Amino acid sequence: MRVERRALPLRHPGFQAAAARSQLVEDILEDAATAPSGANIQPWRVCVVGGSAKDELADAMLAASRAGSVPAPAHFPDPLPKVLRGRLQDFGARYYASLGIDRNDAPA
Questions:
Q1: In this protein, which residues make up the domain named Nitroreductase (predicted)?
Q2: What are the φ/ψ torsions at residue 7 (nearest 5 degrees)?
Q3: Can you give the pTM of this predicted structure?
């Protein structure tokens, strides 16, 4: 994945900071949509918040972290939702087929 740093001018005639931030977020999300994930299941959901909603979320996350009540990260969601399980099975089938390994060849 290509990572690009962008610098925005602090002062520029007609510069709209909110519009520039919005476009930057859209660009980041567009790049992230094609980012690889384990077994190609793309188990994420993205929500973009701003203003007071962002502040409330940040406060809640900080409080949970300080209280030690944040769950440990998991490689896959547990239980794995049906749509993600289908992606995982599809990936496995394609991967092992590309290696010439039959689906029923457990010893391989």
A1: 23-72
A2: -110, 130
A3: 0.50
* In-domain check, residue 28: yes
Position 92 in a domain? yes
- Dihedrals phi, psi of 74, to nearest 5 degrees: -115, 150
Coil, helix or strand at residue 27: helix
Residue 63 in any domain: the answer is no
- As a whole number of angstroms, the distance between CA 46 and CA 37 comes to 15
Position 90 in a domain: yes
| Mean pLDDT on 62-75 | 88
Q: Which amino acid is at 31?
A: D
Residue indicated by tokens 């980012």: 35
Cα 31 to Cα 51: distance, rounded to the nearest angstrom = 24
Hey, what are 31's tokens? 């790049």
Q: How many independent structural domains does the chain possess?
A: 1
pLDDT band at 1 (very low <50, low <70, confident <90, very high): very low
Distance CA 71, CA 65 (A): 9
Which structural domain, as residue segments, surrounds residue 35? Answer: 17-46+75-98
**What distances in angstroms separate CA 82 from CA 35, 46, 47, 86, 98, one per listed residue?**
21, 19, 21, 6, 24
